[in-house]
Every structure is written in C-alpha cells, then in structure tokens.
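Incident log, support desk, overnight shift.

02:14 A customer reports that sequence design results differ from what the structure should imply. Their input is reproduced verbatim below. On-call engineer (initials T.W.) acknowledged and began investigating.
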C-alpha cells in the first residue's frame, strides 16, 4: 500500500514544472485560438472588420444573441438552483428521473436535438398543426432558440451547484 503526500510537499522543481505545463496547455487551448480568430478577422485591417460588425445582419444577430441570453440566464439560474436544491437536500419520488433529465443534454448530440425540435414543433411535427392554427412559431424563431439554449446550458448550472449544496 502506497502513501500519498500532499502536493505542498513536492519539490519546487515539480511544482514549477506542473505549473508551467498548465500555463502552456491553457495558452494552447484558450489563448492561441482566440488570437487566431482575431488575427483572421483583422487580416485586412480595422475598417473591413468594423464594416462587417456594423452591417444590419450582424447587428441583428448580436441583438438576438443578447435577447436569448437575457431570457436564458435568469431561467437557468432560478431553475438550476431549484433543481440542485431539491436533489441535494431532499429525497422524493422522481429524484432519479430529475437527475436523468438534467444529465440528458450531456449525452444528446446537438444534431439529434435539432431533429427532435423539428419532429415536435415543425409543420409536420406532433404539435406543428396545432401551433400553425394558432399562428405560433417555435422553430426558426426566438422561442426555439431559447428552448434549445436552455436545454443545452441548464445542466451546467445544476451540476455545478449540486456538489456545493451536498457539502453544506
């Protein structure tokens, strides 16, 4: 049986090597791609980049992204905290189902999610006729974007908070 010593007892050379390796990996995975994106965007100078950013389609896309974020973030915060609190602090029928539903987006490919949304909300989908009769558009509209974003991001809130609540 081996014994482990705390990292603080490692030699300075080991600590510096591991630290330097972490910085190098961080640069390779985070900073380098960001630099590449900006370098490519600014390849022809600031003027074309600014023109691209101020085009009506670009401004509309940025506005739509901000609207989706403004709706999704509060929903995920409240819903994720509530789900995490229920899972961490209480035993109830359906707890396993709730955990499964929270973890579902981690196992579903985004393409599959798109297919499911079309099968449910599309014109030929389960709710398509009912939605069309009431002039409600989900697919390719703000509600669909919000639903997809919530579905994909909700688990990150809940799964981040659950261990903290269990510890307390």
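02:41 Re-run completed on a clean worker. Output:
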């Amino acid at each position: 049986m081996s014994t482990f010593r705390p990292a603080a007892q490692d030699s300075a050379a080991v600590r510096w090597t591991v630290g330097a390796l972490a910085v190098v990996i961080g640069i390779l995975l985070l900073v380098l791609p960001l630099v590449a994106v900006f370098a490519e965007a600014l390849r022809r100078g600031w003027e074309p980049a600014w023109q691209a950013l101020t085009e009506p389609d670009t401004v509309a896309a940025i506005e739509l992204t901000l609207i989706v974020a403004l709706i999704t973030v509060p929903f995920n915060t409240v819903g994720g905290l509530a789900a995490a609190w229920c899972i961490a602090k209480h035993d109830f029928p359906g707890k396993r189902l709730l955990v499964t539903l929270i973890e579902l987006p981690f196992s579903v490919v985004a393409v599959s999610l798109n297919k499911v949304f079309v099968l449910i909300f599309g014109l030929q989908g389960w709710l398509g006729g009912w939605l069309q009769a009431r002039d409600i558009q989900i697919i390719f509209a703000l509600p669909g974007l919000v639903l997809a974003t919530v579905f994909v991001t909700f688990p990150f809130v809940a799964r981040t908070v659950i261990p903290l609540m269990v510890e307390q």
